[in-house]
Each structure stands twice: as C-alpha cells, then as structure tokens.
Design a protein that fits this description.
Largest sheet: 5 strands, antiparallel
Strand content: 25-35%
Protein name: WYL domain-containing protein
Pfam families: WCX, WYL
Distance between the termini: 49 Å
Strand order of the largest sheet: 7-6-5-4-8
Shape: globular
Number of helices: 10
Number of strands: 12
Length: about 300
C-alpha cells in the first residue's frame, strides 16, 4: 500500500511535469488522465484528494505545485529536478512503476523486478529522513538469529540487488551502518530529531564502492580484470563502476582497470562472471577468487 501511494504521488508529479511546455495542466485534465491510469483502480480523483496529494508531495519530496492563470497547475522549479539531487533520485526510483501503471496495454508487457523489502517501511523511513527524526527498529541478526531493537539516525536510502537499504548512524555502535529493510520487523518514528552531518554527501559516500559495503578502514585499490571479448561488450556498455577504464582491447579479450574498495559485493560480481572474467590485480583478490573456485570444485567433486 505504501509503495502504491508513492507511485500515485510520482504519477501526479510526472503528469504535471510533462505539461510544463504548454503552461501547466488543469484539474479536469488531470482527472481525465487519472481515469485512464491503472493506478486509479477505478476510483475518481476528487478535488479534495488532489489537494491533499499536493500537500503530501510537498512534504515528502519538497516539490511545490502551484495553481496559475486559467487554473492550470505547474511545478515551481528550483533544484528539485537537477541531476543527482535527492528529490530527482527519489522520483526516478518510482517513476517506471508509475509510468507502466498509467497504461493498461503496457502493464502486462513490462516486467519489473519485485523489490518486496520496500513495501512496508520505505515510506516511513523517507518521512523520517525528511524531518531528520530518529527511528527505532527491530532488526534481525543473521549471527544471533534473533531480532534486536535499537535506534538509528536515517541518513539516506539505497537500492541494490533487489533490496532497499537505509544508511544510518547507529548510536549504539557509534558508526555509520547499512541496514536492509527486509530484515526489519518494526519501524517507529520518534519525536526526537538528529542533526544531519553537513559534510555528508550520499554520492560521495559510495563513490569508491561497489554495492552497499563501505568500511571506513578499507582502502581504495587498483583492480585489473581480464574479460572475454563477448562479455566485454556488456561491461563496456554498462560499467561495473564509475572508475572503469578499458586499457587494452583485442579480438579475444579486454583489460579493464578500476579504482575502488574491493569488498564482498564486488567479489560476488566477479564470481558470478567467473567463466568470462579473470582477476589480474591485486594478487590477494586473485588468490581469494582462486580459493573459492577450488572449494567449488571440491563441492561438485570434479
């Protein structure tokens, strides 16, 4: 229900955003398009619901939708759609679902990956982030195999491999950690607030990472991969990391160079392409992958 409501907000923002070149859009036009959207579920968009949605959008995304001449609604643009902005990122995270829901003909022809971890608590966490409020969570530990309750300061959220994560400061451990939403049993927003670090930049925080692991004591290292020619086409079109550089290209293989923190997520990515990818540097990573391959061979008794 929470994700569906978010999709409705995004649908409304995008509908008004697309009408910007013709001076906005009237409520009657919005209501007509709403009827054609699967998101409507057969219900009409009343003026009262519309106004309430505008207030929710302003609170959640900090996007102001105004009514101008001719009773046409438009977005008061600031930095809300700037590339890389938090608001732009949040809208993009849900926009495809809203777009598909707007077309009955396309709904069964566009297959999206399900992300069940965002269904229950994502909206609550986003609301807490908006107001910089501390949240209490009940979180499942794979080590103790039980739930633990504690407070966190939610800094930002990130999606990776079909899971939503919240990156937050944990007062109990006095460090920044990453918590998976699908391991949460309960989320409660408190009245107590926290101060977001002024020097915290979400994009910068993960700049040297692949995935969601970022240990403070980890160092950025040079990683060199040798990739088969065919697989190189995919790597070339969709880089594994922003630091990717192709330093050599032949008919049989390509050499790609990276500068990042090669943690577990990156090793898993390499291992998933083990038949087309070879680690050349650093030596410790090459040996680690080789050890995993030896263990795999033993497991299959080859």
């Amino acid at each position: 229900m929470a994700i569906n409501q978010l999709n409705k907000y995004v649908w409304l923002v995008e509908t008004i955003h697309r009408a910007r070149k013709r001076g906005g859009i009237t409520l009657k036009e919005i209501q007509s398009r709403w009827k054609d959207s699967d998101l409507s579920e057969g219900t009409e968009l009343s003026r009262r619901t519309f106004i309430n949605n505008l207030h929710s959008i302003e609170e959640l995304f900090e996007i102001s939708i105004c009514c101008g001449s001719g009773y046409r609604y438009y977005i008061e643009y600031g930095d809300c759609f700037e590339e890389g902005s938090a608001r732009s990122w949040m809208l993009n995270a849900f926009s495809l679902n809203a777009m598909v829901g707007n077309s009955r003909k396309l709904k069964e022809r566009v297959l999206l990956e399900d992300m069940p971890s965002g269904r229950n608590y994502l909206e609550d966490i986003i609301k807490a982030m908006r107001d910089n409020r501390i949240i209490s969570i009940s979180y499942y530990s794979f080590n103790t195999e039980e739930y633990h309750e504690f407070d966190i300061h939610p800094y930002f959220v990130k999606a990776f491999k079909k899971r939503w994560y919240v990156v937050a400061y944990s007062p109990g451990t006095d460090d920044i950690r990453c918590y998976a939403l699908d391991r949460m049993e309960n989320v409660t927003i408190s009245e107590e607030t926290f101060k977001l670090p002024e020097d915290l930049d979400p994009a910068e925080y993960f700049k040297d990472c692949f995935g969601i692991i970022n240990y403070e004591d980890s160092e950025v290292q040079k990683v060199v991969l040798k990739v088969d020619a065919f697989q190189s086409n995919y790597i070339r079109n969709l880089p594994l990391h922003s630091s990717q550089k192709e330093t050599e290209r032949t008919d049989e293989y390509s050499i790609f160079e990276y500068h990042l923190k090669p943690e577990f997520d990156f090793e898993q990515e390499i291992f998933s392409n083990m038949d087309t990818m070879e680690v050349l540097e650093p030596l410790w990573l090459r040996e680690d992958i080789a050890e995993k391959l030896r263990n795999l061979t033993k497991k299959y008794q080859i």
